[in-house]
């Protein structure tokens, strides 16, 4: 379990992380989401002890970082996949990490196999593609078989096969009872991987929620109706104080009445309905609405000529 209390990191007067509280529980994948510059990497660096909080605390399994980087058998992390000496082979890189942590050679072979790099283990890491570097970084995180794992943007540079692989890896690590925190700025990717979400924007926590609850929160009771007589149906719905929009394809988008009541109303007025369904927000939509105010770097809107 990772636990942050009032966690804050300031650079001069700028608060990159601004008094956030959260728990990352074992046995599930927790997605850490937010726009560029939201404070995800800074938070992860503080969890790992690579950066000290300006104030507040963060603990891993109830313990505070004690001035040394967490040993690999406690916390494994993928932060910057390119942070490998370019002249070293994948094997040598992992072996030196292993040796510094009292981990045997056999485990190096195991993780190389697990991440699919066994056949290129003797090649220079400097010649690796971004996807291969990501795999090497992940191998480093797994080396000590730790109970807590942090992955910063792990699918960067991976092809669809690689993306699928990393999703299953995260899920199986969580299923083994480990604590897994994965950062991303892509909601669509997290939708397929995470059980729980922490959403951050401008250094503040915007949501700490199970995935379905986030969707529910932004769905706002929108109902779509297709009726044999859309105009007459719209009139009857408006008379019942609903807000109704008639789309060009004849669909009525209704706000302010639940689908059950709309069905009853249709029966009362003798309408034939072809479709009646509650529209839930997509996760992407929920995310954009949640973070809309906190996007730091946005392309300027096109100026009309
Ligand atoms: N060493 C530093 N000195 C000054 N400002 C910093 C430093 N490190 C980070 N920041 C600022 O803190 C904010 C948060 O950065 P951080 O890298 O944590 O964001 P992020 O959510 O990981 O973004 P991204 O998705 O782009 O990686 C940014 O505005 C960044 O410019």
UniProtKB/TrEMBL annotation:
InterPro entries: AAA+_ATPase (IPR003593), ABC_transporter-like_ATP-bd (IPR003439), ABC_transporter-like_CS (IPR017871), P-loop_NTPase (IPR027417). The keyword Nucleotide-binding applies. Pfam families: ABC_tran. PROSITE patterns: ABC_TRANSPORTER_1, ABC_TRANSPORTER_2. Transmembrane segments: none annotated. Gene3D superfamilies: P-loop containing nucleotide triphosphate hydrolases. GO terms for molecular function: ATP binding; ATP hydrolysis activity. Belongs to the ABC transporter superfamily. This is ABC-2 type transport system ATP-binding protein. It comes from Kitasatospora viridis. The lineage of its organism: Bacteria, Bacillati, Actinomycetota, Actinomycetes, Kitasatosporales.
